[in-house]
Amino acid sequence: MKNSTRLIALHPSSHTSQPSSVRIVALGCAKNKVDSERVAASFAENGWDVVPDGKADVVIVTTCGFIEEASQESINVLLEEIEAKGRGETSCLVAAGCLPERYRNDLADELPVLDIIAGVSEFGRLRQLVEEWFAKPGRRACFTKGRPTPIAEGPRLLSGVPGQAWLKIADGCNRACSFCTIPGIRGSWQSVPMTGLIQEARTLVESGVVELTLTAQDTTAYGFEGGKPRLWQLLRELDSISGLRWIRLMYAHPRGFADELIDAVVDCEKVLAYLDIPMQHASDRMLKLMNRKIDAAGQNRLLATLRDRIPDLVMRTTLLVGHPGETEEDFEELLEFAAKQRFENLGAFAYSREDGTASSKMADQVPAEVAADRLDRLMSMQQEISRQALHKQIGCETEVLVEEELPPAEDLRYTHSGRASIQAPEVDGITYLHVPAGQKAHPGQIVKARIEISSEYDLFATASD
């Protein structure tokens, strides 16, 4: 299913009593993926088989409810699982996470077949809720009163490709961007204690992880509860872990990029010269309406400083078009900004009017067709920028994290796929890799390669000795 991850057990279970199997479908962001891996570990450690697909005694869908499109995808997946339950393929169906947290009553009323509906604060006790349900069946809606407190720590049953893992360093958000639903769903900002993160990172590396990608709603705010953000310190601690090769920083708010953080990116050998800094817009008027707490001049100064201080920096950003009040002049300013900055990677989305946000109450809502047209214009321009940026990589030596061995085919020169260090997991392009006869490459391994060909978003390379 689109944007879904099937969690796969790392070892068989010896548990023989019924129920015995659980299947978890994780939707949405990397933070939800990490939470889902912890849910899977909780079941596996207590004798359950975590199965990748097909029939299971329990199916848990960890949902996304960030914007309308994500909410609809979550509902569609739940409807598919309800059909499977009707065919007798599962006994207990659970909807957990952001969608139930946001639409508590509505979800229960519209999908009465769901056996357990649980908010984000209940991730840590989903196994207990399921076992209680089998002991005494009956529909349950489980939510913690007040602000949610998402699970932040615990063992994980890794999913996805070998060699790569996400490290969730915090949850919730205090930024209060006018268009964003996250504070209302995930609650206030909470940093994961540094000692726990370092131990988790060491455990992940010992299991074969060579790339850690840091994620949170706003990574630059990490550790601010102590009076001043300490992301720079976390990076330096992670950099000292033996066996770790790549550290990638994502979701860094531009307002929090302090000098100490730039120094850490420059100094730390394993921190990649790759930064993801969501800018959202470039018009001062729109940045103010979005409550971004930074102006266009501040963004431009930061970008200039980063490119000056960090050699061979690769930049990614996210932009939002069609926000209430956005005029054609505002959008043209955004286009000019993207054209001038030439971000190597850029994601954009059209504004979605979400209940409970400040933006939803604003006047001058932009018609959906206008927002869609602006999105097309922006991404058409970015496609050419990306093509030119990747074309410059031809002939360069790079490192590639091998993710998959491709099925053999007579006319297929490229035998593996993976990502170069300039490509982040799940959001950027991929690198197709030719491994000459006599050489070996396996998923989870970082190999040296020379770039031969590029397209708008992908690279094609040959592994070198």
Estimated share of beta-strand residues? 15-25%
Q: How many distinct helices?
A: 13
CATH topological fold name of the largest domain: pyruvate-formate lyase- activating enzyme
Oligomer: single chain
Class based on secondary structure composition and strand pairing: alpha/beta
Tell me, what is the CATH class of the largest domain? Answer: Alpha Beta
Compose a concise summary of this entry:
The protein contains 13 helices and 20 strands. The chain has helices at 30-45, 68-86, 98-102, 104-110, 126-135, 182-186, 194-206, 231-239, 259-267, 284-289, 296-309, 328-341, 368-391, and strands at residues 4-6, 21-27, 49-50, 58-63, 92-97, 116-118, 140-142, 164-168, 170-171, 190-191, 211-215, 246-249, 271-276, 314-321, 345-350, 397-405, 416-420, 431-434, 446-454, 459-463.
